[in-house]
Write a structure and sequence with these properties.
Elements (H helix, E strand, L loop, with lengths): L8 E6 L6 H10 L7 E6 L6 H9 L5 E5 L5 H12 L5 E4 L4 E2 L4 H12 L3 E4 L1 E3 L4 H10 L2 H4 L3 H4 L4 E3 L3 E6 H6 L11 H11 L4 E3 L5 E3 L5 H22 L5 H4 L4 H11 L7 H6 L1 H20 L8 H20 L21
Parallel strand pairs: 1-2, 1-4, 2-3, 6-10, 7-11
Antiparallel strand pairs: 4-9, 5-11, 6-9, 8-10
């Protein structure tokens, strides 16, 4: 096959996704945009049979490869795949194993890239849930109370944007800015988008290609995820010295407000001043619960009525993660150099 006819490189970072891989691989390999593609599953050490599923499928499917992702970080898995298989390919498509995709997803991404000339095509995320708490978290993530109005989370028209859910990138541009920074376990996508924009690349959001995303299914898992998100955003801000948007800055007050309320609680019966210490947290909780109930009613979901509670978990985790990372000594922020990735042809 000539360099000019090589199709996209489709990379699936994976860790214990045996329940989803068979359907996902069938769908990807049947996509019209994947006829000349190479699908690479970068596995981070799955213990549930995921590697076996990929290896057995690859026995009769020449477009499929399995590689080890030794760092167990999604960005590192994508980088490794580009290093080994990116030569001569124009486009990189990043696929999350635990998600639902529209029909002909890859083909439509390629069409959007060709039509716009964008360095990157991103898509919206539409959160979905199965259990009751997961439904509440999904409703929160699809609403302003949970995400502050991020366009790729609450809906919007197709157009140029500064960040969205990573879907497709031109390998030439991906390589030019150094790929994902493997020192970032979270927020690596937004950090890459900043470097891409600084290099003159433009990002297009294709609004009709929303990916179905499943939030964490328990309060503890959701909290830990958002702690990591906050830490990743803090590292991005420190590295690039970029100001936070209002929707990102507002939750920073949550952890201090919660701490003040906890410290004031034992003194509340004795002092009206102490009672005021819990007021910011009470206002925040009231706004979240009321807005969450409204979002739940709009979604016509009984479980969604608790979306305010899920949003509070997200806010608190993000706030704690950001602030804890910010107060660490500057030396803790030194990130590993962005690893080199293979150059590709523009054909």
């Amino acid at each position: 096959m000539s360099r000019q006819t090589l199709g996209p490189l489709i990379v699936v970072p994976c860790l214990n996704e045996a329940a989803h891989l068979p359907h996902l691989l069938r769908r990807l390999l049947a996509d019209p945009g994947a006829e000349e593609a190479l699908v690479v599953v970068a596995d981070g050490g799955s213990a549930d049979g995921s590697q076996r599923i990929v290896a057995e499928t690859a026995l009769y499917e020449s477009r499929l490869r399995l590689i080890d992702n030794l760092l167990k970080i999604q960005g590192a898995g994508v980088n490794a795949a580009v290093r080994r298989f990116g030569e001569g390919r124009r486009f990189l498509v990043r696929i999350d194993a635990h998600a639902d995709y529209p029909a002909d997803y890859v083909a439509r991404l390629l069409q959007a890239a060709e039509a716009t000339g964008a360095a990157s095509v991103v898509v919206p995320l539409a959160s979905r849930g199965k259990g009751c708490f997961q439904v509440a978290a999904a409703v929160a993530q699809n609403s302003r109370i949970g995400t502050g109005g991020a366009v790729h989370r609450v809906g919007g028209a197709s157009g140029w944007i500064d960040h969205g859910h990573h879907a497709l990138m031109r390998i030439e541009d991906f390589v030019a800015v150094g790929g994902y920074d493997e020192g970032f376990s979270h927020n690596e996508d937004a950090e890459l988008d900043l470097r891409l924009a600084q290099a003159g690349g433009r990002i297009w959001m294709q609004a009709d290609l929303a990916v179905g995303y499943y939030p964490r299914a328990t309060p503890g898992a959701l909290f830990r995820q958002y702690v990591h998100y906050g830490q990743g955003r803090a590292r991005t801000v420190r590295r690039h010295r970029t100001p936070l948007k209002l929707r990102q800055a507002a939750p920073l007050a949550v952890a201090p407000a919660a701490a003040l309320a906890a410290l004031s609680a034992p003194l509340t019966p004795l002092s009206s001043v102490a009672a005021l210490g819990g007021l910011p947290a009470a206002v925040w909780a009231g706004v979240c619960l009321a807005a969450g109930a409204w979002a739940g009613m709009k979604s016509r979901s009984v479980c969604g009525l608790a979306s305010g509670f899920a949003a509070m978990i997200m806010h608190l985790g993000w706030s704690l993660g950001f602030l804890s990372q910010t107060i660490r000594p500057a030396a803790r922020f030194s990130a590993r150099p962005v690893p080199p990735v293979a150059r590709s042809g523009t054909g």
